[in-house]
Amino acid sequence: MKKMINNKDLLIVDDDVFFAKNMAAFLSTHGYKVEYKHNGKEALETFRVSHNPVVLLDIFMPGISGLDVLNEISVINPKTQVIMISGQDDNETVEAAMKNGAYDFIGKPVILEILIRRVHMAYLEYLSKVLNLDLEEQVNKHFEQVNHNKDITSPADRIDNETYLKTADIEINRELSRIIGQLNIKFLQKS
Q1: Fold type of domain 2-122
Q2: pLDDT tens digits for range 137-154
Q3: Which of 19, 43, 81, 123 is the right S-S partner for 13, CB 3.0 to 4.6 Å?
Q4: Which whole number is the average pLDDT over 89-112?
Q5: Strand runs (DSSP E) across the chain, as ranges?
Q6: Predicted TM-score of the model (pTM)
Q7: DSSP SS3 for 44
């Protein structure tokens, strides 16, 4: 779990080599470990191994389109947040990206302050999804333990277990809020 929280790996996919290198350099100064690819095929090969939390993805590329890459990423790891990038930011393009499951859309030329904020928010959304899934698993384990415990027969024992589960849920939510709050503070200090 801790590895997932600290995993600030980011994948940039753009056929414009100069753009991809510049975005990678900029984002790495903000604590992201950035890798970039220049076509959809390379991006999917990399993503299948790395499962990056956040992907910046150009829509229009030769070969496999960004929308096709987005669809494949969503199947491989639905928690990954994909920010689509394009020089064409007309309503149809933006709508197509969002309908296909993009977290966000940024038009080119990219404003760096907007980019880093949106990447950070996408990363927080990823963390939220990961932590929520972890919480669900923990709560489900507790419910299974309660349901499988044949020794619990009295109403008082059941109330004690329900109270325990509610308390555990509150504590887990507090911890989630604390972690996200710390990430926001770190981000604001770097900005």
Answers
A1: Rossmann fold (3.40.50)
A2: 777 776 676 666 655 556
A3: 43
A4: 90
A5: 9-13, 33-37, 54-58, 81-86, 104-107
A6: 0.74
A7: helix
